[in-house]
Structure formats: C-alpha cells, structure tokens
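Reviewers of the previous submission asked for a worked example of the structure-prediction workflow described in the proposal, so we include one complete record here. The input consisted solely of the amino acid sequence. No template or homolog information was supplied to the procedure at any stage.
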Amino acid sequence: MLNALRPAINRLLTPVGQALARTPVTPNALTVTGTLGVSAGALALFPTGHLFAGTMVCTFFVFADMLDGTLARIKGTTGAWGAFLDSTLDRVADASVFAGLAAWAVLRGHDALLAGLAVYCLVTGALVSYAKARAEGLGVRCDVGIAERTERLVIGFVAAGLAGLGVPYVLAVGLWVLAFLSTVTLAQRVLAVRQATVHGGSGCPDSKTG
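From that input alone, the workflow returned the following structure tokens.
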C-alpha cells in the first residue's frame, strides 16, 4: 500500500547514504544497529509505560535500518548475505515491538485481551513474512498483500505513540485493525501461492517489502 512512497523515501535517504559511503560504516553494521536500537527501545520503554518515547526511539532506528539497502547500492556491496541478514533481523525487530506492547498490556494495562492481540499481531506478521520467504524458496513470487511490513509498523507505531500521548482506546483500535489486515494479507498470500502452483497462475506482483 505504501510502495508508492518508496521512491520519495529513497530520494531522502540517498544523500545520507552517500555521506555514510565515505565512512567505514557498512550496510550490515547499519542492519545490526537498527535492529538492536528498535529491540532495545521497544523492550525497555514499552513495558515500563513509556509508549511515546519508545515509539520515537523505534522510529529513529527503523529509519537507520532502512539506510542499509541504500548504502549497499551506493557502495556496490549488495549480496545474498546482506539480504538474508536484513530479512532475519527485521523479524527480530518486529517481534520486539509487539512483545513490548504485550508486556505493557500485562504489566501496566492489566489487559489480557490487549496482550493477546499484540501477540496475535506478532505471530501473523511473522507468518506473512514466512509465507513470502517459503513461496520464493519454491520459486514462486509472492509479494501480494494489503499490509506488508511498512504498513504494519506504521499502524503499530502510530497507535502506540498516540496512546503514549493519552489518546484513549487508540492502541486497542490500532491492534484490532492490524490483526485484521495481517490476517487478510496472510490469506492473500496463501491464495496467491495456491493459484500459482495448483492452477498454474503467474504468481504475485513484484514488490520489495516483507
């Protein structure tokens, strides 16, 4: 859904990537740093009730992590290992975000339903990404879906940030919306792979998000 913004984001990141290309910083170092920053921010700040601060920290490190691909293209160091590391650590970061929100719901909100909803978003988000990876392992392109990683993070961070500012019910609404969209996306990918493999379809449209 947000793929239309990707060219604009790349234009914003390119000058930063060009500056970093003149330093010893590597794309893989950015990947690891971004993941550590998101994980630390989510797991240290969300459970203690600092939802807005946690959202700001996580958002900063998500943008830092987005620089890895830009830097790799500028340095000409794109490769299979970097792609594997990036995809794997993205799952770690995503899991940290929703685990942190689930911990907040249990420790601060005393809301078991909200905690369960956050865990459901964590699991379905991982399954959406797994479906794509497994399909590509079978030689089938599968990037279809209304809520890819970018959309899931935007919804999660906006809901958490507004909740941290005191907006009532927004986190619950955001997680319910995210749970629904993630479920639909997973179903879309399963059906697309079935169409491509059982009925001999052409697979899913090309995309670059998880």
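The chain has one domain: 3-197. We consider this example representative of the routine output the project will generate in years two and three.
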